[in-house]
Amino acid sequence: MQNEKKNKNIGITFSAFDLFHAGHVAMLKEASELCDYLIVGLQIDPSIERPEKNQPIQSVFERYVQLKGCVYIDEIIPYTYEREVEDILLTYPINVRFIGEEYRDKNFTGKAICENKGILIHYNNRKHTFSSSGLRKRISDYEFLHKGE
Asked: Structurally, how many domains does the chain consist of?
């Protein structure tokens, strides 16, 4: 593992990756094209520290298996707490962090570390309408409309 990363441009992104969908794949493809080695931080449950976030529907095992099958990912690091994002950024030889465009003008976990360590922050393009929230709504609407069939 360590030899695979030597002298490479290493990128990282963090997410719960619940209900893995086309938007996740598009983001990971974009990220993989901008680095040589892509690490994914898989958050166990974002609602633990941030109650406003959705609790994942899928187990961490299900999400891990889906990510493991994605050709764009080289390594997966499961984590629970936001402080672990900072620890990962401080200890791994990261060159670029990928994060959603919606965070461009916001403070987010690890932003200061990236700036202090010279880790490039790349804001992913989001030219699509795919989202976990949208998928949850579509499933809910479908279930409601087809109830009793």
From this structure: 1
